[in-house]
From TrEMBL:
<dbReference type="InterPro" id="IPR025966">
    <property type="entry name" value="OppC_N"/>
</dbReference>
<feature type="transmembrane region" description="Helical">
    <location>
        <begin position="52"/>
        <end position="74"/>
    </location>
</feature>
<keyword id="KW-1133">Transmembrane helix</keyword>
<feature type="transmembrane region" description="Helical">
    <location>
        <begin position="130"/>
        <end position="153"/>
    </location>
</feature>
<feature type="compositionally biased region" description="Polar residues">
    <location>
        <begin position="1"/>
        <end position="10"/>
    </location>
</feature>
<dbReference type="Pfam" id="PF00528">
    <property type="entry name" value="BPD_transp_1"/>
</dbReference>
<feature type="region of interest" description="Disordered">
    <location>
        <begin position="1"/>
        <end position="28"/>
    </location>
</feature>
<feature type="domain" description="ABC transmembrane type-1">
    <location>
        <begin position="126"/>
        <end position="329"/>
    </location>
</feature>
<keyword id="KW-0812">Transmembrane</keyword>
<protein>
    <submittedName>
        <fullName>ABC transporter permease</fullName>
    </submittedName>
</protein>
<keyword id="KW-0472">Membrane</keyword>
<feature type="compositionally biased region" description="Low complexity">
    <location>
        <begin position="11"/>
        <end position="28"/>
    </location>
</feature>
<dbReference type="InterPro" id="IPR035906">
    <property type="entry name" value="MetI-like_sf"/>
</dbReference>
<feature type="transmembrane region" description="Helical">
    <location>
        <begin position="201"/>
        <end position="222"/>
    </location>
</feature>
<keyword id="KW-1003">Cell membrane</keyword>
<comment type="similarity">
    <text>Belongs to the binding-protein-dependent transport system permease family.</text>
</comment>
<dbReference type="Pfam" id="PF12911">
    <property type="entry name" value="OppC_N"/>
</dbReference>
Length: 343
């Protein structure tokens, strides 16, 4: 009489080669692997074709912006390098040829009046727009997260004061106040030999002005989440173990807020890019001849009837960029929604 031994599994929980699973009813069941929330969110994004296309387009724009000096060096034209032969003085310095002077030498044509290569100005303007959009979004998100954590967890007079400040900031007509404040601050910070403001300093002022009026949105969102999380058992356990306030805020509460913070950041970037373009269009952002999409649109509006491509190209690119960022933000929000089906 022989003794039947149960099948032996290896360290991974699977049957070794040649083993007979008939004697073990659990051997045929598949091994269920746990997935992190980030992995689940990424799987949802990959299945959402619209979000995936928006992600690819956004990455493409970012890569083009990072490689702008390389791309313009390959074409041989800088953003403020005029080509007098590409414009015709007999027609008011409009581009020679059709479609705004598009040719093998100028991939997107040239600017009327100046002869600047439009491709070089577009890719360098993209760097400016993305820099201002992402930098202001990062700054406003950091300030909003800290303020929201402090207001939601502290309560009492701290919450009351910060909440009233948020209400005041949300009530401001953001664009109007930025238009009023930006030139005042820039004129007070004249740093170059021509009595103007250094371009990097102008961008810094622009980033700060946009972030000052944008942080309250993130703060209000974070405060609402913290008000719910601070009553959870893991926070009570941290208090019982004599954990400090900083530990509870940044080690217990903050890791549970990354989803709404990421959503807020993803939606803030396109809004800030649009704001920056609007400010440059109105003449209080990036100053010509430095490239920027808003200033390009402002200049192109004067030549629309004679050279529509000058307005069409940067206008469509700005639309595609902002649309891709908005769709990506919506997709990230849906992917991180805990109420959605776990697929």
């Amino acid at each position: 009489m022989t003794t039947q031994h149960p099948p032996v599994q290896n360290a991974t929980g699977t049957m070794p080669p040649g083993a007979d699973p008939a004697g073990d009813p659990l051997a045929a069941e598949p091994v269920v692997a746990g997935r992190s929330p980030a992995r689940i969110a990424w799987n949802r994004i990959r299945r959402d074709k619209v979000t995936l296309v928006a992600f690819v387009v956004t990455v493409l724009f970012i890569v083009i912006a990072l490689l702008a000096p390389v791309l313009t060096a390959l074409t041989g034209w800088g953003p403020i390098t005029p080509d007098g032969r590409a414009i015709n003085p007999d027609t008011g310095n409009f581009p020679r040829g059709s479609l705004g002077g598009i040719s093998a030498h100028h991939l997107l044509g040239v600017e009327p009046g100046t002869g600047y290569d439009l491709f070089a100005r577009v890719v360098h303007g993209l760097r400016t727009s993305l820099l201002v959009g992402f930098a202001s979004a990062v700054l406003s998100t950091v300030v909003g997260v800290v303020a929201g954590l402090a207001a939601g967890y502290s309560g009492g007079w701290v919450d009351s004061v910060l909440s009233r400040v948020m209400d005041v900031m949300l009530a401001f007509p953001q664009l109007l106040f930025i238009i009023a404040l930006t030139p005042v601050i820039q004129n007070a910070l004249q740093t170059n030999s021509h009595g103007g403001t250094d371009e990097n300093l102008r961008l810094l002022v622009l980033v700060l002005n946009i972030a000052v009026f944008a942080w309250a949105y993130t703060a209000r969102l974070v405060r609402g989440q913290v008000l719910s999380l601070r009553e959870r058992e893991f926070v009570d356990a941290a208090r019982i173990m004599s954990a400090g306030r900083a530990h509870i805020l940044f080690r217990q509460l903050l890791p549970n807020l990354w989803a709404p913070i990421l959503i807020s950041f993803a939606l803030a970037v396109p809004q800030n890019i649009t704001t920056e373009a609007a400010l440059s269009y109105l003449g209080v952002g990036v100053v010509p001849p430095n490239p920027d999409w808003g200033s390009l649109l402002s200049d192109a509006s004067q030549y629309f009837l004679q050279d529509p491509m000058y307005l069409f190209i940067p206008g469509v690119l700005l639309l595609v960029l902002v649309l891709a960022l908005n769709l990506l933000g919506d997709g990230v929000r849906d992917a991180l929604d805990p109420r959605a089906a776990r697929t």
